[in-house]
Amino acid sequence: MAKSDLQGIRKILNEETPYFEERADYIEKSQLLEWTAKGDFFEKIQKKLIGLGAKLLVGPRGTGKTHQMRCAYYSCLDNKEAPLPIYVSFNRYLRLEAYLSKTSNAIDIFHSWVLAKIVIEIAEEHDISLDMFSFNLSQLKQFVDESERQIERSEHDLIIAEISVESVKQYIGCALGASGRRRAILLLDDAALTLTHDYMIEFFDIFRSLKSTNISPKASVYPGTTQYGPRFHIGHDAEVVPAWLNVDDSGYTKFMDVLLTKRIHEEVEVPKDIMELLKYASFGVPRAFIMMLREYSESDRGTAQAKYNAVLQQRKESVLAEYKSIGQKVPQFSKIIDSGEYFFLETVEQLRLHNYQNIEKKGGDYKKTIIVGLTEIPSRADRMFQFLVEAGLLHELQDVSHGSDRRTIRFIPHLAILLQARIFTKSRGFNASEIAKILNGKSEKHPMRRSFYSLLSEDQVNEIALNLPPCANCSASRISEKQKFCHNCGKVLVEVSAFESCMKTPLQDLPLTAFQKNAIKKHTKFKTVEDVLTCQDPATELKKAEGIGAAYAERIFLKVNSWVDEFLV
């Protein structure tokens, strides 16, 4: 979806809350630059994005990857001495996921879709002619749009056959010549295609191949689950740039203070100590900090403690719901996600007991323990752990190795949930200043060490497995995730599709108003999300409903589209 479309959704849905806007996608250029919290952490990332070489900007959702990329883009756009910036978002990649089980050339379509989006961005933003190609801009945009809508046409074959990494590199060379610049930076946002392994491997092959002396690709990815494929080597093909600031970092609160002054331009009635707690509860995610400030300031609860408790509870529910949504998008991972939630909450409980023991033992000399050191991790738990990191529930630290058989994984569980579990004080009362002092103080030198099997039993570990659907023909269980044919009857196995699950969602399950749901049900032929998105003229169909005019029809259509984009991210 274009940036203008995203901004349009906000305006049409009357959701403009400029001072509390948490997503960089919806912020205008002038506001983005004015509200940016600069400092050593920010400047270090900007230097990497604008500089030479391929870079991977790593962090979970909300850590500011898009913000960083857009700032780099705008800082270079009008500066002729800077590299030529090319910003492209791939947040709609899951709309192509169904091709993997439907067509034999799914990878070719995806490959061409990635390159087409880069070419479109250069053509539109830098006004570079497509004379070197036999297709025009309108045809290329139609290919991208229809590929995302699962529409295959013979006209697309020309684009798929012609567009290539080499032709795109040549086209970028044309853009460099026209602009008088020596090199380009490719800012490839939302590149962590973690729910489609085949696409992810293909993407990083493209990423690696685009790299040259005058083209520096940069991609934003998730920690934990991003897999780069056998031909891509971290450190050699690209440098990792962390976008997620550690809550235990000495400059953490200073960064949050700068963020506060830059992003909140009106008086926020939040007590100083509670403000301090919310900084930590955001867990290094700027978007979360802004959301919690908004929730606190808009709360109608009577006391500061009641407001704070409600905000923490809401944050806990939100991060756990986002984590569990992975299982909804890709049902084969549902058992792994469930096991991960149990593991996470058990880890929080163990940390609570560990801190309580230290409070009793050390009294006034007590220091918080928030780091967990985990040993004896079974290989089948790796993916479970990776999903927790991707969702931002665990902040993974550098591993400690004590030999080939003694690896210790270190991580910090989400601080909002640690605070909600009251792990830093045994008192039944609420003393915000005391908790803030503990958080701002030093941590214990050593982590809480646990064996993986002290958190999950062997039976529970055995439950960490893929939830694969049986053969539709003979009901035989699958042997592996990559199995294409039934080992019992030989029939082709149907793969679970996140895109198709999204498309089959009834419109009555979407967050529409009661009036909208009733009007759609009574007066239109639309039953599912797919009905709306595949309709040639959805506005006309929606206008058949009594009380729905042109503007209201567009509003409903954008709501459906916005929901799909959120689901498929």
Topology of this structure?
Blueprint: H1 3-12, H2 29-35, H3 40-50, E1 55-58, H4 65-77, E2 84-89, H5 99-102, H6 106-126, H7 137-148, H8 156-162, H9 165-179, E3 184-189, H10 197-210, E4 215-221, E5 239-242, H11 252-263, H12 272-281, H13 286-298, H14 304-329, H15 334-362, E6 372-375, H16 382-390, E7 394-396, E8 400-401, E9 407-413, H17 415-420, H18 432-440, E10 448-451, H19 458-462, H20 498-503, H21 514-523, H22 529-534, H23 538-542, H24 550-567
Parallel strand pairs: 1-4, 1-5, 2-3, 3-4, 6-10
Antiparallel strand pairs: 6-9, 7-9, 8-9
Report on this structure.
The protein has 569 residues and is an alpha/beta fold. It has three domains: 36-242, Rossmann fold; 252-462, no CATH class; 504-567, Orthogonal Bundle (DNA polymerase, domain 1). 49% of the residues lie in helices and 8% in strands. The protein has 24 helices and ten strands. It has helices at residues 3-12, 29-35, 40-50, 65-77, 99-102, 106-126, 137-148, 156-162, 165-179, 197-210, 252-263, 272-281, 286-298, 304-329, 334-362, 382-390, 415-420, 432-440, 458-462, 498-503, 514-523, 529-534, 538-542, 550-567, and strands spanning 55-58, 84-89, 184-189, 215-221, 239-242, 372-375, 394-396, 400-401, 407-413, 448-451. The strands form two sheets. Strands 2-3-4-1-5 form a five-stranded parallel sheet, with helices on both faces. Strands 6, 7, 8, 9 and 10 form a five-stranded mixed sheet that branches. Helix 10 links the parallel strand 3 and strand 4. The chain is globular, with a radius of gyration of 25 Å. It starts with a helix and ends with a helix. The model is unreliable at 1-24 (pLDDT under 50).
